[in-house]
Amino acid sequence: MYFRLLIIGLLCTTAPAMAATQAIKTETIRIQRPKAEQFPLLDEGFNRDTSSEDALDSEFAEEPPLPKLDVFYDDTELPEAVRATRATLIKIARSGNVAALAPLFAKQEQPPELSFTPVRDPVSFLKDSSGDGEGHEILAILLDIVTAGYLRLNEGTEEEAYIWPYFARYPLHDLTPSQKVEMYQIVTAADYFEMLDYGAWTFYRLGISKDGDVRSFIAGD
User: Fold this and answer.
1) What phi and psi values does residue 13 have, to the nearest 5 degrees?
2) Strand pairing category for 214-218 and 205-209
3) Closest CA to 112 of 99, 101, 128
4) Rounded CA gap, 165 and 167, in Å?
5) Phi, psi angle pair for 214, to nearest 5°
6) CA-to-CA distance for 107 and 88, rounded, in angstroms?
7) DSSP string spanning 103-145?
8) Closest CA relative to residue 200, chosen from 161, 160, 162, 170
9) What is the pLDDT of residue 122?
10) Per-residue pLDDT tens digits for 139-175
11) CB within 10 Å: which end of the chain, N or C, has fewer?
């Protein structure tokens, strides 16, 4: 009797809920695809003007690889004025006296490019650029660079110049094992791989005109 009453009670309490469930109406929702004329970009083929995109791609296209120029080591291949300036730079670098560069630069009609922004006091700038604050590190870098192999650019023209080290204008990805050993006398392997990814030599390089003027001693790109 107890179980029969319990079952009857359960049926009475669930009946309203079942009735409510049966009363719920369902409706099928149909998603309509927008027409092409309403949203032109949804049309197949898109039919958009890609000229601006092509121009952007060409702007960031990879630059052509650097040519393999002749590399020189013998200073007798240098013009007399260039050879004299190189010898003076080596002497100053070995002396440890960065201030000795001031009279060398003062003799030139144009001061050398030491930065991408104007430099008023070359000696102070080189000291500030040196890790030790005295210019000794920067002189060591100068010595490493000016005793490396060099390139001759624009030969026979008014713009003829000599560049140290030759890595500054040489395809880095084509360096031979012996050339890499030369390079590691100037930069670290970490520097090399970073420049390889960047696609250009970004460490210090030295440029001397055919008249013996120091045109540049600068890092960066």
Assistant:
1) -80, -30
2) antiparallel
3) 101
4) 5
5) -75, 110
6) 13
7) HHHHTSSS--B-SSS--S-HHHHHHHHSTTSSSHHHHHHHHHH
8) 170
9) 96
10) 999 999 999 999 999 998 999 999 999 999 999 999 9
11) N
Looking at residue 62, its amino acid is E
Q: Are 105 and 214 in contact (CB under 8 A)?
A: yes
| CA–CA separation, 82 and 209 (whole Å) | 7
The tokens of 91 are what? 């002497």
Q: Residue 152 — φ and ψ, nearest 5°?
A: -110, 120
> What are the structure tokens assigned to 16, written together?
């309203």
Q: Which residue has the tokens 């660079």?
A: 145
- Which residue is associated with the tokens 């702007």? 59
Give the neighbor-by-neighbor strand order of the sheet with 214-218.
151-153, 161-164, 205-209, 214-218
